[in-house]
Q: What sequence folds into this?
């Protein structure tokens, strides 16, 4: 466990040393602020005809839908690419591989680091949107539900991180890896839209996991099968990715 | 009294898809040995070293460190090994000290004082807060060596350690190796294609040619009938192969 913690700490420090992740976090905050300001401005211009408090009270959930499906996956792909494909490409992956830590711990410490990064983005999003809601709508109603939605949406993110980590094992080229991650994610979204029957079978169909649990819920046995699908994807991505990492020669 | 065997390479075969690699390599290194792995470029020196460090998987045979198979006991065996393979593996966007600190986390015995010590040994103390990306090739090589000796390992595997170093730096590295072998009884496996470097640093020499181990002798025996290690290398290759391709 000690070597896993050491490895995880190293991976987190590598991420923290790269300024782009901070820049993307600032952009996330700016997008939220901009949305809040625009809504307030619309309210002012329409002289109260359009209720800004109604729009702003729903802001945490609206923003979550956008960020969880588009923005955070991009950050996840970048981080996974930096910790896997880039390190394999420039040989720095050897720095850890020559140390007394087995590859299982190395692989999953990198996965955990990317997941923690995604968590930071989610927490920041929740805090910023909740503050904007509090200021704009003068309301704290639904705070618990919103928090639960954010926590629930971390679950499909685990699968997404495992998916990105696995894809990064197939290629030595960082640019190819990241492009493939993006193309496949977009492809899965498009397939889910064009053929709605398949959206339930693709893990990307569950990116807004909270929709299944909050509001109008589906029967429990249907939930079990959906949990099974997501769990299955996670296990498959995790096992394939780790296996490829274990046999890799650098 | 027999010295303890630190490293044992037993019938190691590692072949790449292109058919190159090493075949049936066997040798062992005891406590305090400084073994030079001499051979031309592409002879398989790095492959042997990569397999020792667990970076490559052997097709046949095995590598043991203190009697334990490396592939089965990565955490236990690599605790006692430090390495510098091909080129220094360093994160250029971090400082020299940060690079060392990150690697120190894997060893319970490495503290801040030890980091200070290795930085001093490789003469990088004054540059410890500089980003490695700004370092010269020689400084990176010295940092690579610092990372290899950081945990005070019993076995140190160095692939072309004097690459990119000036004369002063080369002599310094040689002195560090000799001092560690003498005082700490650390064992070294040093790969080089420069016979003169191996001759000055090592007490044993292994000749690797086209993926095969042609000889493994003490430096004394190697130089008995030959005026220099270069001559020993040429005669060994000629004896085994019938001709010398230079």
A:
């Amino acid at each position: 466990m000690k070597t896993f913690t050491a490895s995880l700490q190293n991976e987190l420090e590598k991420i923290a040393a790269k300024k782009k992740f901070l820049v993307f976090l600032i952009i996330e905050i700016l997008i939220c602020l901009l949305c809040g300001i625009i809504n307030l401005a619309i309210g002012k211009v329409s002289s109260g005809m359009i209720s800004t408090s109604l729009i702003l009270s729903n802001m945490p959930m609206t923003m979550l839908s956008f960020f969880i499906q588009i923005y955070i996956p991009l950050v996840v792909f970048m981080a996974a690419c930096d910790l896997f494909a880039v390190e394999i490409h420039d040989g720095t992956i050897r720095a850890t591989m020559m140390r007394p830590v087995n590859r299982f711990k190395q692989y999953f410490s990198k996965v955990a680091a990317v997941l923690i990064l995604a968590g930071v983005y989610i927490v920041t999003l929740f805090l910023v949107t909740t503050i904007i809601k509090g200021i704009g709508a003068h309301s704290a109603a639904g705070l618990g539900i919103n928090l639960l939605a954010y926590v629930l949406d971390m679950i499909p993110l685990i699968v997404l991180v495992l998916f990105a980590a696995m894809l990064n094992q197939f290629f030595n080229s960082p640019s190819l890896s990241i492009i493939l991650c993006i193309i496949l994610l977009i492809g899965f979204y498009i397939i889910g839209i064009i053929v709605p029957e398949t959206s339930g079978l693709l893990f990307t169909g569950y990116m807004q996991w909270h929709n299944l649990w909050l509001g109008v819920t589906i029967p429990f046995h249907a939930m079990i099968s959906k949990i099974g699908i997501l769990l299955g994807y996670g296990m498959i991505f995790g096992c394939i990715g780790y296996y490829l990492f274990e046999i890799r020669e650098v | 009294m027999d010295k303890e065997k630190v490293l044992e390479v037993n019938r190691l075969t590692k072949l790449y898809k292109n058919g190159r690699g090493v075949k049936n390599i066997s040798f062992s290194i005891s406590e305090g040995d400084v073994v030079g792995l001499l051979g031309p470029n592409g002879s398989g020196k790095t492959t042997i070293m990569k397999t020792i460090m667990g970076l490559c998987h052997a097709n046949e045979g095995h590598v043991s460190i203190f009697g334990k198979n490396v592939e089965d006991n990565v955490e236990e065996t690599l605790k006692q090994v430090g390495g510098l393979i091909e080129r220094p593996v360093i994160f250029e966007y971090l400082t020299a000290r940060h690079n060392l600190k990150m690697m120190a986390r894997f060893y319970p015995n490495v503290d801040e004082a030890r980091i200070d010590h290795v930085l001093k040994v490789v003469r990088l103390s004054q540059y410890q807060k500089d980003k490695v990306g700004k370092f010269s090739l020689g400084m990176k090589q010295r940092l690579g060596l610092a990372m290899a000796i950081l945990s005070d390992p019993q076995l140190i595997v160095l692939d072309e350690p004097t690459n990119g170093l000036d004369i002063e730096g080369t002599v310094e590295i040689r002195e560090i190796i000799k001092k560690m072998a003498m005082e700490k009884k650390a064992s070294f496996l040093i790969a080089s294609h420069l016979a003169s470097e191996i001759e000055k640093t090592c007490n044993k020499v292994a000749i690797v040619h086209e993926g095969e181990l042609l000889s493994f002798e003490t430096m004394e025996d190697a130089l008995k009938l030959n005026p220099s290690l270069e001559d020993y290398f040429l005669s060994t290759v000629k004896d085994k192969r019938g001709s010398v391709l230079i």
Observations:
- Chain A has a mean pLDDT of 91.
- The radius of gyration of chain A is 20 Å.
